[in-house]
Design brief:
Blueprint lengths: L6 H20 L6 E6 L5 E6 L3 H30 L7 H19 L1 H4 L5 H26 L8 E2 L3 E2 L8 E3 L6 E3 L4 H24 L2
Antiparallel strand pairs: 1-2, 3-4, 5-6
Helix pairs in contact: 1-2, 1-3, 2-3, 3-5
């Protein structure tokens, strides 16, 4: 079993270092108080001193990264107890860290570029996360290739078995449950879960007109 941290974490560290350096370069161009939160109508309702921007741009992604490292460690413990394959979550950590820091950086630059500039970074954030999940799926597919039910797990992530009456299935890796996507209701649940970020994209798109 490989170590808890891998090359993806190194890439995340380099990404954050570049973002912090960029914040340092642009901070002198920003006002003393920088807008950092908007309500559902697009109105600013939160401000941060420009000297503290680094804690938002880098601190928030680091906190999420730490949580994901903890989740990775727990699923490794579970894998050791059950002899299940262990797949590192490094790609997901990189995708989340890069996406969140990119959006936070764009938010800090709104005094220079306006709120309309947030739509692109928001879409880019979801793209970064999807990139991380895609690479995680590749890892899972490789790890599951020799398992008896490997054909029922699409891309190593999605369980699909029309002959299984269960809607919720125990995950093959770590803790938790996943859906049986052969069931129509599973697709409906996924659609509901994806609705909030899609609504956010639509709202920003309407504000950008």
């Amino acid at each position: 079993m490989k170590g808890l941290l891998d090359r993806w974490d190194g890439m995340a560290a380099l990404w954050l270092a570049a973002v912090v350096a960029l914040v340092g370069e642009i901070s002198a161009l920003l006002p003393e108080m920088v807008p950092t939160h908007w309500n559902h109508k697009g109105a600013i309702d939160g401000w941060t001193p420009r000297g503290q921007l680094v804690w938002i741009v880098a601190g928030l992604p680091l906190a999420v990264w730490a949580v994901l490292v903890g989740v990775d460690a727990l699923q490794r413990v579970a894998g050791n107890k059950s002899d299940a394959p262990v797949v590192g979550l490094g790609p997901v950590r990189f995708g989340v860290v890069s996406g969140i820091s990119l959006l936070a950086l764009a938010g800090s630059m709104t005094p220079l570029m306006g709120t309309k500039s947030l739509l692109g970074p928001l879409v880019a954030m979801f793209a970064c996360m999807a990139f991380g999940l895609w690479h995680l799926g590749r890892r899972m597919s490789t790890a599951m290739a020799t398992l008896p039910d490997a054909a029922r797990w699409k891309y190593g992530l999605f369980y699909h078995n029309a002959g299984d009456d269960r809607l919720w299935i125990g995950r093959r890796f770590g803790y938790g449950w996943t859906l049986n996507f052969a069931k129509p209701v599973a697709k409906a649940i996924l659609a509901v879960a994806l609705a909030p970020p899609l609504v956010l994209v639509v709202i920003l798109a309407s504000l950008s007109r």
